[in-house]
Write a structure and sequence with these properties.
ten-stranded mixed beta sheet; about 55% helix; 17 strands; about 775 residues
């Protein structure tokens, strides 16, 4: 028996290993399928469309989806179909050639009597390796090489292929009421490789059926689209080793309707749009029927809007690892907001493929929310209205501030030259304080849901606050320097509002006139360029005041400490995250410290300033780099790219900012503040009574503050993409503040024989240290 038992154990030992591999193979065969991602493009659709129309299939999809407002930005704030799909393809901002970008044809399809494959060979020198080719590809590559974003179109598909993931596109937006062919197949560009070849899909006219009542008389044949999709999505002959598949399907009836908008009246357009939404919702329903929610991911997005429209569009993602709620990315740093460059990296992340460092965007993350679908849609509709509200407020608020500045400067000169009485001078000073208070009041107005109120409410709040704050400050001021105390109060309010907002999440800046919005800005967190100009100017003047009113060393330490504290706020990634601000304000801090302590600026001082600036950038950059990738600001992301690519991203960034500088420096009303400030400065320095000498006599540290602000303005204008707008804002704050000081009883008094009295500590001479 013992021998028999031993033989049985030996047999089991031999047979079990043979059996286990077979069992393992069977388990693998029955395990999860390869991951698949369906991207449904709904051109032009906003959350307001979702809210205002019956779209049952989309509503059902959204129950399990994470959602966001999408800023459909490419190189310009308003993307068209070509640059939108190319931006997805490159993962960075891309441009296009609109007249020809839709020429994506099958290799055997004839154009002007010649097969597209032959035209492609002639233009590129390559043999097409897929069924469709972009005939415009060489022109598209050339157009993007001329942009400073280093975008490599085709990166998405190349990276997917390296990761053994297939890509295909389905859609056809052809249609014209004019003579000649129409090729509007830009959706194919989203999955084109670096040679302009679309590896798989269906983009031909056989997707269309006649529909005389529809735009251009055609529409998608949903049966044919469904068959083509199913053949690609669930094909049984999928190559061995393929690790997943991406299929992009465009609801092309929406694209046709967007193009039809300029040639019909509003009522007819609304009818056509509603029909296209209904047809596209039916298409979505058919596509989703083939999706396995346990393994497949679905993304629905509107990559572009109708021409000239700056509304945010919609994007939603549902899948096995997605919690219902909102979407965010490192690019936006805000729940409920994405930008178009994030779509390509998100597609790669779905398949577990690392994003190439050349891609500007970042993968999305979901933020769970217990809100219902309707509540989330309402929230995103409101966010869009807030963004549009900022765009509507920027120009009129800027106009008010700059025009009032010009009036205040003119009246201040008249009051000083003609020796107006106390009441006249007080009126001019009060007008200057009102103008300065408008700036922080424009942020405080965001405490209210302004988009739910008429425009008159905003103006009433803005002007009411701008009148009440200086009135209270003047009433509280007593004795000598009665104008200077309210001025410091207003400047302190300006700085404290911005600092308090940025350390608490920048809620006031989002949608504020001088803040930022997804429709107009590529960054939605930290200190905006408009805010930097205000904060820098206010900090320099208040620091100078602290150094003056606190005797000796204590005052100098307080002033320098304030400047350093502002620098920290600008640079900390979770607060200001302002790279250009740190680069510009660090030398301003050094300048102030040198001058307020009575020293002169020498070559050694400049070298120390450059070293301090580099050290500050390095410190803040490493602090940002230490955060999770999904939380990193643009400085941390820049450090990532430098580590992988060397200095080329820095060169590209500088080139991009210079290009943007030139564009905005000639288009903003803020630029007019610079010549106005220069003219006023010339009066202060060159008029017969030399009023600036009187100011410096009673405010000995003022020149140090002015020099520091000048450095902050010049470097800020050069290093940020808002250009001379920053210089204009700083010029407005400085010139208006000097106008208030000019009509102050103390500052406007005739200078004594020695305009700079000997201070208790080290001397600070106005003539030696004043700008100009």
């Amino acid at each position: 028996m013992t021998r028999l038992r031993a033989l049985l154990l030996l047999a089991l030992a031999v047979l079990v290993p043979w059996a286990l591999p077979t069992h393992a193979v069977d388990a693998q065969a029955d395990g999860p399928e390869q991951p698949r991602l369906l991207v449904v493009s709904l051109p032009g659709v906003t959350w307001a469309d979702v809210q205002g129309h019956e779209l049952p299939n989309l509503d059902a999809f959204l129950e399990d989806a994470a959602m966001a407002d999408l800023a459909p930005r490419s190189v310009t704030p308003r993307s068209g179909p070509g640059d939108a799909y190319l931006t997805i393809s490159g993962g960075s901002r891309a441009t296009t050639v609109p007249e020809i970008d839709g020429q994506v044809l099958a290799v055997d399809e004839e154009s002007i009597g010649t097969a597209a494959g032959d035209i492609y060979r002639r233009r590129t020198g390559n043999d097409p390796s897929g069924p469709y080719v972009s005939l415009a590809w060489p022109s598209l590559v050339r157009a993007n090489e001329g942009e400073p974003y280093e975008t490599e179109i085709g990166t998405l598909t190349d990276t997917l292929e390296d990761g053994s993931v297939s890509a295909a596109a389905i859609g056809n937006a052809d249609g014209t009421d004019s003579i000649g062919p129409s090729y509007e197949r830009q959706v194919g560009l989203s999955v084109a490789d670096h040679t302009g070849v679309i590896p798989d899909g269906s983009l031909g006219k056989d997707l269309l059926e006649p529909a005389p009542e529809q735009p251009f008389g055609v529409r998608l044949d949903l049966d044919v689209v469904g068959e083509r999709f199913e053949a690609i999505w669930a094909r049984p002959d999928r190559p061995t080793g393929e690790d997943g598949s991406l299929v992009v399907v465009e609801a092309s009836d929406l694209a046709r309707t967007l193009r039809y908008r300029p040639i019909v009246d509003d009522e007819r357009y609304d009818e056509m749009w509603a029909q296209s939404l209904e047809q596209s919702d039916e298409l979505l329903g058919r596509l989703v029927e083939s999706v396995d929610p346990e393994t497949d991911t679905v993304m629905v997005l509107a990559p572009y809007n109708r021409a000239g429209d700056r509304d945010l569009t919609m994007v939603a993602v549902a899948g096995p690892e997605i919690s219902p709620g909102y979407l965010r990315s490192a690019s936006t740093q805000r729940s409920g907001f994405l930008t178009l460059v994030d779509i390509g990296p998100t597609i790669l992340d779905t398949f577990g493929i690392a994003r190439p460092t050349a891609m500007e965007g970042r993968p999305v993350v979901d933020v769970a929310s217990g809100d219902s679908v309707s509540a989330r849609v309402d929230h995103l509709v409101t966010r869009n209205r807030e963004s549009r509200h900022r765009e509507q407020l920027l120009t009129p608020t800027t106009t008010l501030v700059v025009v009032l500045m010009a009036v205040v400067l003119a009246l201040a000169i008249a009051a000083h030259a003609n020796r107006w009485g106390r009441r006249g001078r007080a009126t001019v000073a009060f007008a200057g304080l009102v103008d300065l208070t408008i700036l922080p009041a424009s942020y405080l107005a965001r405490f209210f849901a302004l988009e739910d109120h008429p425009a008159s409410f905003y103006w009433m709040f803005l002007l009411g606050t701008a009148l009440v704050v200086p009135a209270v400050a003047c009433a509280l001021a007593r004795g000598r320097g009665a104008t200077r105390a309210p001025l410091v109060t207003v400047l302190s309010l300006m700085g404290l509002v911005l600092i308090g907002d940025v350390v608490s999440g920048s809620h006031l800046s989002l949608g504020a006139a001088f803040g930022y919005s997804p429709t107009g800005n590529s960054r939605l967190y930290g200190i905006s360029n408009y805010s930097y100009g205000q904060l820098a100017a206010a900090a320099c003047l208040v620091a100078a005041w602290l150094a003056a009113v606190l005797a000796g060393r204590r005052g100098r330490i307080a002033g320098i400490g304030l400047m350093v504290a502002v620098l920290v706020v600008l640079g900390v990634p979770t607060w200001g995250s302002d790279v250009g601000g740190v680069l510009a304000f660090t030398p301003a801090v050094a300048t102030f410290a040198v001058l307020v302590t009575g020293r002169r600026i020498r070559l050694r001082t400049l070298v120390i300033g450059v070293g301090a600036t580099a050290g500050a950038i390095l410190a803040f950059g490493l602090l940002d780099l230490a955060r999770a990738p999904s939380d990193r600001g643009h400085l941390g992301r820049l450090f990532e790219r430098i580590g992988d690519e060397g200095p080329s991203p820095v060169i590209a960034m500088v080139q991009r900012k210079l290009t943007a500088n030139l564009a905005v420096s000639t288009s903003s009303l803020w630029v007019l503040a610079i010549p106005l400030a220069i003219a006023f400065w010339l009066y202060l320095r060159r008029s017969q009574r030399r009023p600036f000498e009187a100011m410096a006599a009673s405010f000995a540290t003022l020149p140090a503050g002015l020099w520091a602000a000048l450095v902050a303005a010049v470097l800020g204008s050069a290093l940020n993409d808002s250009g001379a707008i920053i210089g204009g804002i700083v010029a407005m704050v400085l010139a208006t503040s000097l106008a208030v000081l000019l009509v102050d009883d103390d500052a406007s008094a005739e200078p004594a024989q020695d305009p700079v009295p000997e201070p208790v500590q080290e001397p600070v001479r106005a003539e030696a240290t004043s700008p100009g």
